[in-house]
């Protein structure tokens, strides 16, 4: 089949790789002019994806991870409240993204190409671009993210919904601290929580993928209830005064928000955790939204990654869900698939919706348990 993909981030690149592995002619169209810059964060290791790629002869050593050995909860003084042994391997968004880019031939990605719409007909689907050109394919994979234009076109009444809390986030080099300052953090997933907020920190690989002590980075996230919409919009206005829908990327946070973040950290966090925030050069901000497409396929269009549904970030699975979507889509269209694209997609969509259901429920359940979200401010 000829398959076009709208969006060249994790879901788009993963789908391009897996669908190419099973023999399809795939091309990715990404609206950004240049390869993406990492959203930073820690990412759980993409087990299904790695297994699938290895089965198809791809070397995946680059998706390396830093294991944490203990889940450790601390009090406001930084003293241990409880510890559980738990090995959690964390990779990073940029490590995974770079690794996917390296595996996909460069000729299969076009940057600076925005998909503006599509028209279906009996023989296929015409995909339209901002340049004015159109291309015909057998299938369109919408990997255009949480604010998916494709989802909005198919389901205009299904807008995303603010979940009542936000996340301050950041990445800071381990080398910014003396070993003594961070000795209680390096081997652990460290958690601090009180009603209405929760902080987590753990190590991820260095920007060059390094796992060597001193060359890794701390990833931290601080979830806080935000009942005040005016404050929310203020933090969603960047350092050039531009409003954003749901997140402010690293480097764009306003000076006012940064100062407020540091003050909040000094007031509400143990010093050992507040120091991570104070030394983070470019913290970023995310308001937590839920988006769910009523079905993951319509006609010849498949929705994957955040375009299909967003999962709450504290499930740690946005990226792995996107990769699993890609694997399952390729499995549905491997060697002996039903040549009727529409009915194969319909069956895939129903199956995939069932598979992600547990994850979709787990996010709000965890949030309620942590006292986060609507009704918990
Ligand atoms: C601020 C932030 C931090 C996050 N941190 C983490 C984390 O730490 N760990 C984790 O597991 N997950 C994290 N996630 C979620 C994770 O990034 C996504 O769940 C995962 O990468 C899947 O994303 P995606 O590829 O579906 O969408 P996105 O990464 O949003 O990518 C969509 C892509 O489509 C492109 N695009 C959009 N519209 C069009 C169009 N019309 N035509 C062409 N291209 C288009 C965009 O430019 C973009 O590159 C984070 C998300 C955000 C917003």
Number of individual domains: 2
Q: Please state the second-level CATH architecture of the largest domain.
A: 3-Layer(bba) Sandwich
The radius of gyration is 21 Å
Could you give the count of β-strands? 18
What small ligands are held by the chains?
A: flavin-adenine dinucleotide
What best-fitting shape do the alpha-carbon axes yield?
globular
Please estimate the helix content: 25-40%
Average pLDDT reading: 91
How many alpha or pi helices?
9
Name the beta content range. Answer: 25-35%
Distance between the termini: 50 Å
Q: State the CATH superfamily name of the largest domain.
A: FAD/NAD(P)-binding domain
Unreliable segments (pLDDT under 50, ≥5 consecutive)? Answer: none
| Helix/strand structural class | alpha/beta
Pfam family, one: FAD_binding-like
InterPro entries: DHP_3-monooxygenase, DhpH_subs-bd, FAD/NAD-bd_sf
Domain 2,6-dihydroxypyridine 3-monooxygenase substrate binding: 162-290
Protein name: Salicylate hydroxylase
Structure commentary:
There is one protein chain. By secondary structure, the chain is of the alpha/beta class. It folds into 2 domains: 2-49 and 94-160 and 290-367, FAD/NAD(P)-binding domain; 66-91 and 161-289, 2-Layer Sandwich (D-Amino Acid Oxidase, Chain A, domain 2). Helix content is 30%, strand content 29%. It contains 9 helices and 18 strands. The chain has helices spanning 10-21, 47-55, 93-103, 149-154, 229-235, 255-268, 271-278, 318-332, 341-370, and strands spanning 2-6, 25-30, 42-44, 66-74, 80-92, 109-111, 115-121, 124-129, 134-137, 139-142, 161-173, 188-194, 197-204, 217-225, 247-248, 284-290, 297-298, 301-303. The strands form 3 sheets. It has a 9-stranded mixed β-sheet with strand order 3-5-4-12-13-14-11-16-15. Strand 1 (2-6), helix 1 and strand 2 (25-30) form a beta-alpha-beta unit. The longest helix has 30 residues, at 341-370. It is globular. 42% of the residues are buried. Flavin-adenine dinucleotide binds at residues 6-12, 29-32, 36, 39, 41-43, 93, 114-115, 143-146, 149, 247, 286, 305-307, 313, 316, 318-319, 322. Pfam families: FAD_binding-like. Residues 162-290 form the 2,6-dihydroxypyridine 3-monooxygenase substrate binding domain. This is Salicylate hydroxylase.
């Amino acid at each position: 089949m000829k398959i076009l993909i709208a969006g060249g981030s994790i879901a788009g690149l993963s789908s391009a790789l897996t669908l190419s592995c099973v023999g399809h002619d795939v091309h990715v169209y990404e609206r950004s002019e240049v390869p993406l810059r990492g959203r930073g964060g820690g990412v759980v290791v993409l087990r299904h994806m790695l297994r699938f790629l290895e089965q198809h002869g791809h070397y995946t050593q680059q998706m390396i991870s830093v294991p944490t050995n203990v889940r450790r909860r601390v009090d406001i003084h930084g003293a241990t409240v409880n510890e559980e042994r738990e090995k959690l391997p964390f990779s990073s968004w940029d490590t995974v993204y770079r690794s996917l880019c390296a595996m996909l031939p460069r000729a299969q990605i076009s940057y600076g190409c925005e998909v503006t719409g599509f028209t279906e007909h009996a023989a296929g689907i015409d995909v339209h671009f901002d340049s004015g050109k159109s291309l015909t394919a057998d299938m369109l994979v919408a990997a255009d993210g949480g604010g998916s234009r494709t989802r909005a076109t198919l389901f205009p009444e299904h807008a995303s919904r603010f979940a009542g809390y936000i996340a301050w986030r950041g990445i800071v080099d381990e080398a910014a601290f003396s070993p003594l300052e961070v000795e209680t953090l390096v081997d652990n997933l460290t958690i601090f929580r009180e009603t209405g907020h929760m902080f987590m920190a753990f190590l991820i690989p260095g920007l060059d993928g390094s796992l060597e002590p001193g060359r890794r980075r701390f990833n931290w996230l601080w979830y806080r209830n935000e009942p005040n919409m005016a404050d929310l919009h203020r933090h969603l206005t960047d350092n050039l005064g531009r409003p954003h829908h749901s997140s402010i990327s690293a480097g764009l946070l306003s000076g006012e928000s940064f100062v407020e973040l540091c003050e909040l950290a000094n007031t509400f966090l143990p010093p050992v955790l507040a120091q991570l925030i104070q030394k983070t050069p470019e913290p970023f901000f995310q308001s937590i939204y839920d988006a769910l497409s009523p079905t993951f396929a319509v006609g010849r269009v498949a929705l994957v990654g955040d375009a299909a549904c967003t999962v709450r970030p504290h499930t740690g699975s946005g990226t792995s869900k996107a990769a699993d979507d890609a694997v399952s889509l390729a499995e549905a269209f491997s060697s002996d698939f039903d040549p009727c694209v529409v009915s194969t997609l319909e069956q895939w969509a129903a199956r995939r919706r069932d598979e992600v259901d547990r994850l979709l429920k787990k996010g709000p359940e965890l949030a309620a348990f942590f006292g986060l979200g609507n009704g918990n401010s």
